[in-house]
Fold this sequence. Notes:
There is one protein chain. By secondary structure, this protein is of the alpha+beta class. It has 7 domains: 1-40, no CATH class; 45-131, CATH 2.40.50.200; 142-235, CATH 2.40.50.140; 241-329, CATH 2.40.50.140; 336-387 and 402-445, CATH 2.40.50.140; 450-531 and 539-567; 569-704, Heat Shock Protein 90. 29% of the residues lie in helices and 32% in strands. The protein has 9 helices and 30 strands. The chain has helices at 3-35, 45-49, 53-56, 142-146, 452-529, 539-567, 574-591, 611-630, 667-679; strands spanning 61-72, 77-81, 86-90, 104-113, 120-131, 154-165, 168-172, 177-183, 201-212, 219-227, 230-235, 265-275, 278-283, 286-292, 302-311, 318-329, 336-337, 352-362, 368-373, 376-382, 391-393, 399-401, 408-418, 430-435, 441-445, 595-599, 636-643, 647-654, 683-688, 694-701. It has a 5-stranded mixed β-barrel with strand order 1-2-3-5-4.
Amino acid sequence: MPMTFRVFQLRRCAVLLTVILAWSAAFDNRAAALAGTNSPTLTSAEQIHRLSRQEAATGRHVLIRGVVTCTLPQFDAAVVQDGPTGIYLNNVTPDAGNLPQVGELVEVEGTTDPGDFAPRIQTSRITRLGAGELPAPVHPYWDQMINGSLDTEFVEIEGIVTAVLTNGVTLRTHDGRINVLAFNANGDTNEVILKDSENALIRMRGCLFASWDSVTHHVNVNEIRMYNPSVSIVEPAPADVFADALKSIPDLLLFDPRASALRRVKVSGQIMHYGEGEYYAMDGTNGFRFIPRKPVQFAAGELVEVVGFPGLTGPSPVLQEAIARKVGVAPLRDARPLAPGELFRAQNDAVRVKVEGVLLNVSQDHRTLEMQTGLKRFVAQLDGSDEMGPASADAGGATKLAFPLGSRLELTGVYSGNGGNRPASEDVASFELLLNSLADIHMLARPPFWTLERTLVLVGVLLGVLALSLVWIRLLHHEVQQRTVQLQTEVQNREQVERQHALAKERARIARDLHDDLGSSLTEITMLATAGPSRQLPVNQAVERMESIAGKSRSLVKALDEIVWAVDPERDTLASMVRYLASYAEEYLTGMNITCRVQSPNSFDDRPVAGQLRHHLFLAVKEALNNAIRHGRATEIGFRVRVLEDRLCLAISDNGTGFDPSGRSEGHGLSNLRERLEQVRGSSKVETSPGVGTTVSLEVPFSAFSDAV
């Protein structure tokens, strides 16, 4: 292929790419202009749902296409779904376009609105594009229906109608039970699904709306709403719910191709106990529970047939939404004796058992017994209105229980396990024994009791131990007093020695400062003031020397003022120290033609400060200022004072050149700075980098302020 042709092709591709990019930019600019902001136009319902309430309230521009899945004429609203997600259209008035019909394909333009529950579209224009195809419905799980995440989505729900409500139905789905409030297009109760639907397996298809509180915006976890749903009967209600074949409790754990969470089973058994809304019954030697859909009254010993939805995840099968009928009466079957090692087995649940144990405690209402068998404990609950145990009156007329604590009892009742899983052979975590009457309690042995002789021996032993304890405590107290006096004497002697040592150290420091600062300066002044005997100085040299002498004298006075300030007892407060340091920084930097910015609290507490600490802190501040001027070449220095809860913080920051701490040794200046702070139990920190200046932070704890370092 000739090279000229290839170049021509490349040029054509470049031109085409340029046109595409220009068209894309023009489209984006048009969308941004329509939105009135720099934010891009939202083109899908999912993007709108992802907005927070604050973002949706800004009125983002929206331009989407989708199929109408629900119309709400009474609200001037509709729902459009553009794929997996639906969105609520508000303000669908004739100005925006006539309200579309379900199944129409439309293009919607408008702005976002936070809505009362979820983001929605304030419609400004609706364009009908013809007939569309309804999206495939979502088959939601129970938790998806009640958490609000599928609000305005097209769904299909299948379940058995367990109750007909005034404005909907209660459905038992594969995952749980939920109330579905159904309305027609005008917002009235949908009468279609309220007729002859109880106990039928139905399928509802339509737009799902979360039920929520208008004040808190929290979802109602018990119900959802659907407007004008389509309802189909999958299986009609059985003419007789008891017509199914009878199953035994073990059969429920066997393979059954027709088994389902939405299919009832029928069992029979004998009522053992009723408590807290559920019945305990036995089918032969196997126990089960059932929870009636409507209140019923059965007594222990009655034979019943029960139809319900089985739950097999607990210690025994539980039939929920149950319908039961009485078929006879028989004496209660014999209780199963339980050994201590069999107390926590799941197969005992709902079974009438017999347990021996020791009475540990009885509740105030005489209805709850705390028992112990071996090392295991359990609780027994008595049903009925009589007091626990027979009572007798003593000589004084007081009533006492015939079952004193420590008695060994035999209890006959119904086993109620907590936790565990019988199909998985998991033991229960705890259990209660449900007693029907006082006849279920028998005393096997009374508790042992103390005789008078044993009581007197015990009291004598306790008195002897008490007397020995008092003697030992008295001796120990005397020894503690002696040791306390000795320690006080040692502490006083040590404090005196430390004060003398601190005084000597302070004298040595003052002498050293006088010698180093004042001595050298005086010597220099003397040498400058003394002219050679053999020569006369010219006038200009004499004037220069006098100015030098004056400068040295001012420095000498300033150094003397610093020494006097460090040892002056009237300056030993926190406020005095901070004011002096701030004034020194301002005066020192002003003399160097450097801008000084001081930040300091307006007031301080009367906290005393030791002279040594003031001296070291002053020299540290002086060293930091000197480093900023000499090495950093700063033109502005900040001096900030902060008084925290437990420490004083000083920060000296400059706008100088800074340096790289990893590529340069600290030198004597920073080393001296760190050592001075360590001598007063403080710390220093240098933050710097090339070109951004340096910040020196000095921190001293308040606990070191009174130390005579």
